[in-house]
Amino acid sequence: MENKVYKIAILASGAGSNAKNLILDSRKDSNKVYKVELVITNNKDAGVINICHQLGVPCFLWKKDSFLSPDFLINSLKNNSIDYIILAGFLLKISDKIIENFPKKIINIHPSLLPKYGGNGMYGNKVHQAVLDNKEKESGITIHFVNEHYDEGEIISQKKISLNELETINSLRERINILEHEEFPKTLRLIFK
């Protein structure tokens, strides 16, 4: 009996490195558990748009209002038989209505060890700066289900790295990005299997 291949939609707002990583991972011969069906962005200048064009993945631009009044979006996802929504650097809050329609089917990756350095406005370099300002000894990533509060959903997994006194925003961002690229696809494969 053949295993189910889960159809995912990725929501991304920025450069798209995690989206690209997941698209490429989903195409590996060894990975027959998920397929990236489409990508949605809220940013007309997002790098993820070019990545999708290069890799032949449908990419749609949705304005912020579409996420606030999400009926059309929900119907579009359901009409495309989307099983999971993956947030990969997506900066808008997911509406309660989308969460209700995809319970425990929306997964986010966050560049800190939640509950530290999460919440509204905490993303990217803002997180890394806060970690450094507070002289943390470690940082990492958190992969979690999305609920109605920013970065407060049930934690699926966390991975840590140790920091040193010479750490900069750039070095921390690069190390976290490498960790995200290693762990996000692995974690999704485990969930889908």
Q: Give the full name of the CATH homologous superfamily.
A: Formyl transferase, N-terminal domain
Radius of gyration: 16 Å
Shape: globular
Q: Give the SSE string.
A: EHEHEHHEHEHEEH
Question: Biggest sheet, strands in spatial order?
Answer: 3-2-1-4-5-6-7
Class based on secondary structure composition and strand pairing: alpha/beta
The third-level CATH topology is Rossmann fold
This entry's quaternary arrangement is single chain
List the helices and strands and how they pair.
Blueprint: E1 6-12, H1 17-26, E2 34-41, H2 47-55, E3 59-61, H3 64-68, H4 71-79, E4 84-87, H5 96-101, E5 106-110, H6 124-133, E6 138-145, E7 155-162, H7 169-192
Parallel strand pairs: 1-2, 1-4, 2-3, 4-5
Antiparallel strand pairs: 5-6, 6-7
Helix pairs in contact: 1-2, 1-7
Describe this structure in words.
With 193 residues, the chain is of the alpha/beta class. The protein has one domain (6-192): Rossmann fold (3-Layer(aba) Sandwich). The chain has helices spanning 17-26, 47-55, 64-68, 71-79, 96-101, 124-133, 169-192; strands at 6-12, 34-41, 59-61, 84-87, 106-110, 138-145, 155-162. 33% of the residues are buried.
